[in-house]
């Protein structure tokens, strides 16, 4: 994909675009956040992937802008999703790992579900006149033995269709209490198509009303079960955790994204629909790092392969086409204030989010990040025991400017990397920059020390 140099006229165009949207003589845009599951930084062609052709996503990137320094606030699903919904680092809501059953959540020192008093981008946009829908994976409460998780409506969603890891599972997807069953009405290979259909139907029925949609498929999460891989006598023709199945699922996923884009055109709303495409965390398995563009680490790791995600934005006439921004640093917490600004929606009273309004950046004006980014993955050995070997990172991290520092809480195992010259994290330069280490270590330790500890009330606010 060609990278267009951003010029002063583009910056002026960005200024005019954002002012016209946010000031706001123009109809507010539809907003769709596509959050893929476990997609690696370089799974798709436009980010360097060569597994299978991904023509529809590559074309989508050519019609918009892509960003190569976008970070998820967690290397695993539940916390990363919480950061998008709330605009806050998920550890502030006692999420540092994926949600499991009550016993596992307790041992991991985390909540059973997201508190309904947490900020919600869906609530904010709904208050601004948007119709709101969530179609796909949730995983912020519900499923397994968590029977009292709050319903979607309490988080601000008008409509929903979700998997078993939610408070209101769609019966077509949840014949059994697992990620996939061969007796589901909607088979594993049709789930992304199902969520695309739900999204297009929602948009069609709300013609004339601005819509906010979370389209959160559970592809590209394992098990990869392409249609060619139907069960035969209780066996899979191919291993649903290996590359052959992955390639078929990725090709189908690209096809379904194309159906979404074509559907928006048919509805006549593509020109005024802002689409964000990204992933919740890094891949697993990563096929020896090939799914992460050579970045170190995988899902479950605070190295780049676990938290640096593909990020594409398209909004014709506002987001420049054919641009690659490799300068601006973005975080999943930024979506809350950014989308609120674009939609002319008021932030909650006394809102103290961790994100920045990066609307100018999306509109083609790169800028440095002012706020530091913090990560915590797992609070003890039970919750933080993977991955093994070189990809296993310390469980805390901070990025400030070009510097990224990692360490385990209350241990002196600091790692420091210069992300401008060493994005593959090959050389720990902590000994060469003691002043940088001392400053960032103190900030990171302070941030962690003031995070809320788990209490019965925080774990389960509605439990009597």
How would you characterize the overall build of this protein?
Strands 1, 2, 3, 4, 5, 6, 7, 8 and 9 form a nine-stranded mixed beta sheet that branches. A four-stranded antiparallel beta sheet has the order 10-11-12-13, covered by helices on one side. The protein folds into two domains: 8-362, Alkaline Phosphatase, subunit A (3-Layer(aba) Sandwich), CATH 3.40.720.10; 373-459, Arylsulfatase, C-terminal domain. α2 (55-62) crosses α7. It has helices spanning 8-22, 55-62, 77-86, 102-107, 121-127, 191-205, 243-267, 304-307, 335-342, 359-362, 434-449, 456-459; strands at residues 30-36, 65-71, 131-136, 159-161, 211-216, 273-279, 308-314, 323-325, 330-331, 373-376, 396-400, 403-407, 415-418. The chain has twelve helices and 13 strands. Mean pLDDT is 92; it is low at 1-20. The radius of gyration is 21 Å and the shape is globular. Helix content is 26%, strand content 14%. The protein is of the alpha/beta class and 464 residues long. β12 and β13 (415-418) form a beta hairpin.
Outline of the structure:
This protein is α/β, with parallel strands linked by helices and 464 residues long. It folds into two domains: 8-362, Alkaline Phosphatase, subunit A, CATH 3.40.720; 373-459, Arylsulfatase, C-terminal domain.
Query: Would you identify the regions where 5 or more consecutive residues have pLDDT less than 50?
Result: 1-20
CATH class of the largest domain: Alpha Beta
The count of strands amounts to 13
Kindly report how far apart the N and C termini lie: 55 Å
Order of helices and strands: HEHEHHHEEHEHEHEEEHHEEEEHH
Mean pLDDT rating: 92
Q: What CATH architecture of the largest domain would you give?
A: 3-Layer(aba) Sandwich
Question: Rounded to an integer, what's the Rg over CA atoms?
Answer: 21 Å
Write down the overall geometry: globular
The number of domains: 2
Number of helices: 12
Structural class: alpha/beta
Report the β-strand fraction as a percent range.
5-15%
Q: What is the CATH topology assignment of the largest domain? A: Alkaline Phosphatase, subunit A
CATH superfamily of the largest domain: Alkaline Phosphatase, subunit A
Please bin the fraction of helical residues: 25-40%
């Amino acid at each position: 994909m060609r990278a267009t140099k951003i010029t002063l006229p583009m910056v002026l165009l960005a200024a005019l675009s954002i002012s016209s949207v946010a000031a706001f003589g123009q109809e507010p845009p539809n907003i769709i956040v596509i959050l893929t599951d476990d997609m690696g930084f370089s799974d798709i062609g436009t980010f360097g992937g060569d597994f299978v052709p991904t023509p529809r996503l590559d074309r989508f990137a050519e019609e918009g802008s892509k960003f190569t320094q976008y970070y998820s606030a967690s290397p695993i699903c539940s916390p990363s999703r919480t950061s998008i919904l709330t605009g806050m680092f998920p550890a502030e809501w006692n999420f540092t790992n994926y949600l499991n059953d009550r016993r596992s959540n307790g041992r991991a020192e985390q909540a059973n579900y997201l508190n309904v008093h947490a900020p919600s981008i869906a609530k904010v946009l709904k208050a601004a006149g948007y119709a709101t829908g969530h179609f796909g994976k949730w995983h912020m409460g519900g499923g397994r033995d968590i029977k009292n998780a709050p319903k979607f409506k309490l988080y601000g969603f008008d409509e929903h269709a979700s998997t078993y890891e939610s408070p209101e599972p769609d019966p077509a997807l949840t014949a059994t209490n697992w990620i996939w069953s061969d007796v589901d009405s909607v088979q594993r290979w049709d789930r992304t198509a199902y969520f695309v259909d739900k999204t297009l139907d929602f948009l069609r029925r709300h013609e004339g009303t601005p819509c906010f949609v979370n389209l959160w498929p559970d592809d590209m999460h394992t098990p990869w079960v392409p249609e060619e891989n139907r069960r035969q006598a209780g066996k899979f023709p191919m291993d649903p955790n290996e590359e052959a199945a992955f390639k078929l699922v990725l090709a189908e996923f690209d096809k379904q994204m194309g159906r979404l884009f074509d559907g928006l055109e048919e509805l006549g709303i593509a020109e005024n629909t802002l689409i964000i495409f990204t992933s919740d965390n890094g891949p697993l398995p990563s096929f020896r790092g090939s799914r992460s563009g050579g970045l170190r680490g995988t899902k479950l790791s605070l190295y780049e392969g676990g938290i640096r995600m593909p990020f594409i934005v398209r909004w014709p006439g506002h987001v420049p086409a054919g641009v690659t921004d490799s300068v601006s640093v973005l975080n999943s917490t930024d979506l809350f204030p950014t989308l609120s600004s674009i939609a002319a929606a008021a932030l909650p009273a006394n809102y103290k989010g961790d994100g920045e309004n990066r609307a100018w950046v999306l509109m083609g004006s790169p800028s440095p990040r002012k706020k530091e980014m913090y990560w915590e993955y797992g609070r003890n050995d039970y919750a933080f025991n993977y991955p093994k070997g070189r990809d296993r990172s310390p469980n805390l991290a901070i990025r400030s400017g070009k510097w990224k520092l990692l360490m385990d809480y209350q241990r002196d195992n600091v790692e420091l990397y210069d992300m401008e010259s060493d994005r593959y994290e090959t050389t720990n330069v902590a000994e060469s920059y003691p002043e940088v280490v001392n400053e960032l270590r103190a900030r990171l330790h302070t941030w962690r020390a003031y995070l809320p500890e788990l209490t019965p009330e925080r774990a389960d606010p509605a439990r009597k």
